[in-house]
Here is the input.
Amino acid sequence: MNTYARRPSSKDIARLAGVSQATVSRVMSGHPHVREETRERVLAVMRAANYQPNAMARAMKTQLSGTVGVVVSRITNPVVPEILQGLGVQLSRLGRHVIVWNTDSDGEDGVVSAIRQSVVEGLVFTAARAGSAALTAALEHRVSTVLLNRTVVDAACDQVSADNHGGAERLARYLVGAGRRRVALVNGPLDRSTLREREAGLRAGLAVTGLGIAREHYVSAPFVHEVFRDSAMRMMALPEPPDVICCGNDVIAMGVLCGLRASGRRVPEDVWVTGFDGIEMAGWDLFDLTTVRQPMDRMVALAVERLVARQAAPERAPELTRFETELVVRGTTAHTPATH
Here is the structure.
């Protein structure tokens, strides 16, 4: 909580953190000669005081851009604006500017060019993929880089994600415990680590009880609303339709719900539906979607902390952190409580 009637200064931050004003300046500039525990204490005080340094003055003193690039894809997916809002708040408090690249529409050329011209002093990838030219360029040019939400195996940078596999495995146990036996999966493209891990976790959780996903109850397709809508309609027209349709994320689930409504099927009376991500819209009365929520606020906060720490100590070993998820039970599974 900000206890200041006026805007706090760097002197205030130094006093509260028990350090010199010079130390605060070194933390803000990403100077390597600051002890990690001191850096964390200063950053914590800055967050509590809602400290917003003068970015222009900082740029003049350090001759750095103070700019962090955020690389996203499918910006129309509601989870992306939620991530961007969190990153914007966190980075603004640290005096950083933000540039956003949407690789679905702009490609990666702009990101690669910015890296080569030293336009950004840090990068956050929210939709990284193996073989990404932008990620490769960032690592080659030693730009401080954090992968948020998606992960890339063996990438030499910090990575922050949810435990997608574990969350989907727990979802499977919940469904089986509630008596579901004909489980369907409607998923997006498996080149996304999030969707790939969720599918693997769901299958693993079902396998423990001897269940699986029938071929006719499975779809992996590009992100097109009509495809997910039509998939649900086709599945429910089968001689043995599924009794629950699990979806790779909440947006896919919304397409499935549209298909079920169009085909006259009732949710949850005829079939259950589940999502994954925990976006705000999932809780709206229109959807009332049971989902697996990832703690995006905490994930964003840690990603920013790792980015600052990387700028201060480029040689530190990369870290991968996965946050535990939460099953949120709503109307699309009849508000059936978890029994485990």
Summary: The radius of gyration is 22 Å. Residues 55-64 have pLDDT under 50 and may be disordered.
